[in-house]
């Protein structure tokens, strides 16, 4: 099974930056999966915010486009989310996720999840 471990969350003032990392293991072939980031606040559904398809092409939700950047280091099997110009409404638990298919990286169901990391913007 795919295993995902996030790190890098914390507290930051509005306008600041954070970088989240997600160490991934247990999958065979990066070209067979999608990798993505989601976030969730209490009482709300989990929100997709960014994804990398099997070719490394990124997609973003409108709420983070232009401020967040998703990237990967294949040598380290690590996914990143660089978050700039943070706003209080970005406060959430952030999850990295993997989808066991290289199709529908934006709209498909993700099968594997990390434990989440808290980001607080004040």
Order of helices and strands: EEEEEEEEEEE
Characterize the quaternary organization of these chains.
single chain
Count of separate DSSP helical elements: 0
Radius of gyration: 13 Å
Mean pLDDT: 93
In short:
With 122 residues, the protein is an all-beta fold. 0% of the residues lie in helices and 48% in strands.
Write the layout of secondary structure elements.
Elements: E1 3-7, E2 10-12, E3 18-25, E4 34-40, E5 47-52, E6 58-60, E7 68-73, E8 78-83, E9 92-99, E10 112-113, E11 117-121
Parallel strand pairs: 2-11
Antiparallel strand pairs: 1-3, 3-8, 4-5, 4-9, 5-6, 7-8, 9-10, 9-11
Descriptive labels:
122 residues; mainly beta; 7-stranded mixed sheet; 4-stranded antiparallel sheet; 48% strand
Walkthrough of the structure:
- The protein is mostly beta strands.
- It is built from no helices and eleven strands.
- Strand 7 and strand 8 form a beta hairpin.
- The relative contact order is 0.32.
- The mean pLDDT is 93.
């Amino acid at each position: 099974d795919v295993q995902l471990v996030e790190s890098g969350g914390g507290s930051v003032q509005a306008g600041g930056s954070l970088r989240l990392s997600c160490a991934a293991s247990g999958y065979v072939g990066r070209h067979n999966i999608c990798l993505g980031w989601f976030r969730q606040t209490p009482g709300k559904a989990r929100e997709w915010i960014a994804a990398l398809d099997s070719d490394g092409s990124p997609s973003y939700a409108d709420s983070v486009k232009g401020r967040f950047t998703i990237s990967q280091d294949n040598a380290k099997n690590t996914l990143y989310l660089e978050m700039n110009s943070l706003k209080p409404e970005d406060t959430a638990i952030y999850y990295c996720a993997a989808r066991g298919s290289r199709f529908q990286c934006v709209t498909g169901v993700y099968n594997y999840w990390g434990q989440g990391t808290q980001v607080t913007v004040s």
